[in-house]
User: Fold this.
Amino acid sequence: MLKTDLPAASRVLVGGSDKAVRIMASIKLMLVSIVSIAVFLGLAIVGRGGPAEFFSHAPLIALTVITLVLTVAASFTAGNLDPGQREDRSNRWRLSRSRSSGC
Assistant:
């Protein structure tokens, strides 16, 4: 999110610099990631029969640790799935052609 995308009051609150805006966006993304991972792990733990049952299996402990480590590591990367380009809609005919041929 760029500084210009924010209302004037928000730019003032975050210091007005692009770096501050990026840091705030990163913090928000990290918080959302942590909350969503906690919800999914919580559901898995409840579904397995509670924390004692869930963490009594080594593969589930490893899966939990790896998930948490990768979630934290992802917040420090500059990766983005958005190529920053608008889609060329003139090539959509290829989708229907692929579907009709069964590929």
Observations:
- Residues 22 and 28 are 10 Å apart (CA to CA).
- The mean pLDDT is 77.
- Residues 3-76 form one domain.
